[in-house]
Amino acid sequence: MTTAIRVGALRAPAARASGLHREGRAAYLFLAPSLLFFCIFLILPFLFAIALAFSDWGGFDLGTIEWAGFANFSEVLSLDGAFVRPILVNTLMFAFGSVLLATVGSVLVAHCIEQLHFQGFWRVLYFLPVVATVVAIGNVWKMMYQPAGLINGVLNKLGVNSIGFLSDASYALPSVTVVHAWASIGGAVLILTAGLKAIPLMYYEAAAVDGASPGRMFWQITLPLLRPSLLFVLITQFIGGLQSFALIIVMTGDGGPVNATNVAAFEMYQQAFKFGAWGTASAMAMVLFVVIFAITLLQLWIARRRGEETS
Amino acid sequence: MRRRFPWFSYLVVVIGGVAMVMPFLDMVMSSFKGAGEYGVIPYEFLPESFSLDNYRDAFSQLELGRLFRNSVIVTVSVTISVLVTSSMAGYALAKLRFRGRAVIFRFILATMMLPPFLLLIPVFLIMLNWPLAGGNDLLGRGGDGGLTTSLLALILPFTVSGFGIFLMRQFMVSLPDEMLEAARIDGANQWQTWRLIVLPQTKPVAITLGLITFIGMWNEYIWTLLISSSEPSLQTLPVGIQLLQSFLDPDRTMPIVMAGLVVSTLPVLVVFLLFQKYYVRGVVLSGLK
Q: N or C: lower Cβ tally within 10 Å for chain B?
């Protein structure tokens, strides 16, 4: 017995080492396609993006690229330009607005669906826009927002004058924001539902015994215990809102009327692919990236702090 | 827990539900509106004639066959590639012991933090200057468009997904080690173990990932718009349909756009409704990371 163990103990390291060596080689072979991809389509472009932000370059000949220092950033962040105001302000309002609407809406809907029959059916209903292309969503809403569209049709029947949802500069951004919120409610409902299901039923039973009203239970039990999923939804949707611009291309074409719906990622796209100003566009991308990165770090920090609280 | 009839909840969910479905119904109704019925005040929800003219026009004005072919080629290639690469990388990260495993896993989590818009410009320039493609020399110079003139341009930047690797890895961690051990004792090498033992077990998560990738690619817009703006033969369904719209006569073209959208949305909708259980699970999983 003892000898067997000792022999095993002596032999094991060598055998394990060669096994591990082979396993390591296999592992890297399995990872090779993905790592190669990340090098070409992630790391290289990321470094390239940083370099471009500090350079002055038009056209496509790499030989003509020139170092520009912080010139692009001072141009982009200058208060005389359009980037900080209205574009960056628009971006924040678009993201804030759609997160606010989508979160309030999805908490309400997710909570209410829990009380009903056919829960799966209702959730799929709210999830439908996620399946549709942004071209469909954008055009349908654009159509509904027209003077002769569904929404103004209803308003007119109620005796309200038509509103130029997309043509009036003061309505355009809120109108687009509503559509973005509408499209993202379904995903939030699903994540919040998972959070709701994780709340132990006994809390509600105890509260019911104490005679708490449904409204009180919602505010005192559901909402506090939903905080982790709620925070996740808030932050991911906010990050999503900050970088989204497909809807704006489809609905307003050029970020109009007069920059009213222009957002940072779209301005970057225009600067790069309409005007060929790679440097300016990349500096814009960097500014937006830093904003998003800071929010992501905040999310990680909050998640970690919460982890320490519970452990 | 006994409750009274939840009338408040019904009210909220039904009103919200109407708001979710109404745009889609308006899309379908408008696609059937005949000449002179669209863009008229007062607005009418139901079409008078239920005409199929818009569908006929959409089919004749769009090269629907080509758009559909491009959409299918791009979507299917990306879906297969993501499934294969994710399950390979996921297996290595979940079940193989090697130096650097923790670092690589963290790196893959970090890749998900890079927003796509940041990579738009550099990836475009990289595709344009791809060595030995589209007449480029070894240093990627001199050619005409590099890789941006072929369907590969629409496929390559999406072939691997950090999220996919993460999803697969999380699923595979829970597979019992004894099963893999048994395969090894029977003489299977790592490749055979992955192919014959692990892959068949991952079916549920593969359906989830496949579905998310499929729907995402079918609807992809920004990158395809960019690439196809100089190479119209690369248009996919969303891009082609969007270009149907004429700024000169929106009241005539919008119903045709709607008809095209109904046709292009239907396949995804059917696939989604058939497999929605898997899709929903993927969304929830992404929320639990």
A: N
